[in-house]
Amino acid sequence: MLLKDKVVLVTGSTTGIGEAIARKCVAEGASVMVHGRREHAARDLCAELGDTATYTVGDVADPELCESLVANTVNRFGRIDGVANNAATTARATIEQTDAATFDRHYHINLRAPALIIRAALPHFRAQGEGAVVNIGSVNAWSGQADLMPYSASKGGLQTMTRNMANALAEDRIRINQLNVGWCTSPNEIALKISEGLPEDWYLNVPRAFAPTGRLLTPDQVAHHVAFWLSPDSRPANGCVYELEQFCILGRSSARDWDD
């Protein structure tokens, strides 16, 4: 088991990629702190996962909640070995459509919250002699679609922060790595595209311009990668930004019609 007897905090873990990460961590032997904004979803997931999981509800835009997530993890399980910073917000907005409130919310959730959670975990990592963090980024960090401006900017900042912290904390045996995830078939993404007019099985037949293999990433595939990067098996890798994507060249990404 990759994470036998480890304790992992997974933010944004009541749906999609985060839920898959929480499930994978438990399957690999870890105890998990589940987090989300909907108590019923967190409660139901923990009931399914069993005694190795508990939950905290709240918005990571709140700095106090970020500290509570770590404190609650340690209070429940006695330690914290890893963090998967997955919680994020994604608003469709160009620069013209991005007001101060939209930009601030992306900054608070996608960049500030991971920083505050890592900071809160540091004393515990140091006391234990090591720790591992996986920040969930995006291939949009390199440029991104025009209508994902605040999201792309926040993930670009997360990418730089990951490397900065990795460099600063390496001698404490605290590893900070990032997965830049490509287009993924989360339940929310599937529903969004259906609402935009695509057929219900759109993700089974993706044009090669969007996915060379004709298939997109699944949350379970992302979770497998996260479990590895949280585990001792990924030592001593640190400060890595891993592109979990099908394309070998990243950078400018244009919003295109499905049939283009």
CATH topology name of the largest domain, in short, is: Rossmann fold
Strand residues, percent: 15-25%
**From the alpha-carbon coordinates, what is the Rg to the nearest angstrom?**
18 Å
Report the order of strands and helices.
EHEHEHEHEHEHHE
Quick structural summary:
The protein is α/β, with parallel strands linked by helices.
Could you characterize what this model shows?
The protein has 260 residues and is of the alpha/beta class. The protein folds into 2 domains: 200 residues, Rossmann fold; 32 residues, no CATH class. 42% of the residues lie in helices and 15% in strands. It has a 7-stranded parallel β-sheet, with helices on both faces. The termini are far apart.
List its salient traits.
single chain; 260 residues; alpha/beta; Rossmann fold; seven-stranded parallel beta sheet; 42% helix; globular
Please describe the topology of this protein.
Layout: E1 7-10, H1 16-27, E2 31-36, H2 39-49, E3 53-57, H3 63-77, E4 82-85, H4 100-128, E5 131-138, H5 149-169, E6 174-181, H6 187-195, H7 219-230, E7 241-244
Parallel strand pairs: 1-2, 1-4, 2-3, 4-5, 5-6, 6-7
Helix pairs in contact: 1-7, 3-4, 4-5
